[in-house]
Amino acid sequence: METKELTCINCPMGCLLTVEMDGDEIRDISGYTCPRGKTYAEKEVTNPTRVVTSTVKVVGGRKDRVACKTQYDIPKDKIGAVMEAINAAQAQAPVVIGEVLIADVAGTGVDVVATAHAV
Amino acid sequence: MNKVDIVIVGGGPAGLAAAVAAYDDGAKNILILERDEQLGGILNQCIHNGFGLHTFKEELTGPEYADRFIRQVSERKIPYLLNTMVMEISPDRVVTAMNREDGMFQIEAKAVILAMGCRERPRGALNIPGYRPAGIFSAGTAQRLVNIEGYMPGKEVVILGSGDIGLIMARRMTLEGAKVKLVAELMPYSGGLKRNIVQCLDDFDIPLRLSHTVVDIEGKEHITAVTIAEVGADRKPIKGTEERYTCDTLLLSCGLIPENELSTAAGVQLNPVTNGPVVNESLETNIEGVFACGNVLHVHDLVDYVSEEAAKAGVTASRYARGEQNDDSGREIAVKAEGGVRYTVPVTVRPDHVEDQLTIRFRVGDVYKDSYVSVYFDDTRVRHQKKRILAPGEMEQVVILKKQLDETPDLKTITVKIEP
Fold first, then answer.
1. Which structural domain range is residue B71 located in?
2. Which of B24, B64, B350, B417 supports an S-S bond with B60, CB 3.0-4.6 Å?
3. What is the per-residue pLDDT across B37-56, written as a single tens digit (0 to 9) for each?
4. Would you list the DSSP string of B98-160?
5. Is 0.95 exceeded by the ipTM?
6. Each residue of B225-252: pLDDT tens digit?
7. Beta carbons of B202 and A7 less than 8 Å apart
8. How many helices and strands in chain A, by DSSP H and E?
9. Regarding the domain delimited by A53-114, which CATH topology (the fold level of the hierarchy) does it fall under?
């Protein structure tokens, strides 16, 4: 049995959640004070995901960087690989908001898209 | 002299939302004055996500949120000037501004909306002992360097203050390869949002040391180390708790101050708690026809509420410019903050000018669990709303219906307070 402790992020209460794990299986969740806390804990221990935001280098324009994000959330343990791909990438100006800068970043099946314009 | 209906000082989230709402209310002769080279204000460097959950029901990054409003401004063809600095606003609403193309020029406005935002509390205002070497940045300056210019301020980072920008930069610097050693917070609680503490610090095992502050800065040319110490209930460092951390960068995230130099020069009265203008229900300052919204009025934690508040200022300014704001019975109600409530916006209410409802925004001065937000009409308690948690970092609001105000014609004072 493994015990994981989490802080719920759904509201400013910040309930301390305790999850009892048996391998990949959840045995018990305690500490939540509303249903959202329970759902959050389940997701965090089985499949934690994050949207990664950063900037990509731009050439041929007035701006040197353009803001970007993974279009959807990616597995938390892929953050490092995604950042490496973002830092290796380069975009050609002009870049428009929503444009795909890296397709299927780090094998996640998720694209990195521009979140701003760069001229 | 150039004449317009409404001049909006600042093209950030507040200015943009005010412009769109004023236009949609019928004011077509609007001018936005923005000192940066693009619209959007500070949102342009806030590349992280989490904006717009209330307004658009989706999670946007800062530039995306700004773009939604910039597009609304473009669709309406609302004029704006970039790289333009407002120098002075006179009490009779003559706005003096300058830029490289037009030089110095004046505009006569029927109404002015103050939307200048806020700035960060600098090191000089924090009284940290030690040398003044390079390598000490406000968190927002570092954010601009990393996200807009593409420069890293350093590799070994200590952050003082757990405001949201400091937390966001802890993650940002880590993702870009820096080692963030710790975040020190003077207060026994963080000023930042819970989700930022979890996703920016816990995700990367960055320690948050509450009730700690920087008591020494080392390094002559460039910062080389800082000393952190625990503080007592009096917020004074406790001897013997000092710990030294080597670093090449110190980021400061120690609060935001509304930028009201133009307002005070115009004679606008400020609230000493918020450092923002004292306003009535129409978000109008003590100077007739001068309105305020967004972070220049009081510092917000969510841009969604800035947009909402600014839209209100846009509509009331538009009505004023049309001459619709001017007749009333002279009835005025004071709004008072008591018992844990630090301030309210607005501080006066003219019931004749309240449409369907009145939103009173406020902040508390401490963390309260299982307490009640109470509203009193003079000595009568009219609302007693249970809150599981109230925290200084989260703005709160109560809504009062116009009907309630009409039913109490002799009402002199509305009081908002926290009760156990």
1. 1-119+256-326
2. B64
3. 999 999 999 999 989 888 88
4. EETTTEEEEEEEEEEEE---EEEPPGGGTT--S---B-EEEHHHHHHIIIII-----SEEEEE
5. no
6. 999 999 999 999 999 999 999 999 999 9
7. yes
8. 2, 10
9. CPE0013-like fold (3.10.530)
What distance lies between CA B12 and its chain's CA centroid?
11
Which of A65, A76, A115 lies closest to B148 in CB terms? A65
Shortest Cα distance, chain A CAs vs residue B278, angstroms: 28
In three state form, how does the secondary structure of B2-41 look? EEEEEEEECCCHHHHHHHHHHHHCCCCCEEEECCCCCCCH
Decide: A70 and A82 in contact? Cβ < 8 Å. yes
Same domain, B3 and B93: yes
Q: Which member of B64, B67, B194 has the closest CB to residue A12?
A: B194
How near does any CA of chain B get to the CA of A110, in Å?
16
B127 shares a domain with B112: no
Domain count of chain B?
3
CB proximity under 8 Å: B 189-208 to A: 193-195, 197-199, 202-203
Interface contact flag, A51 B193, Cβ < 8 Å: no
Closest by CA position to B306, among listed B25, B34, B31, B40: B40
> Residue A9 and residue B195: Cβ atoms within 8 Å?
yes
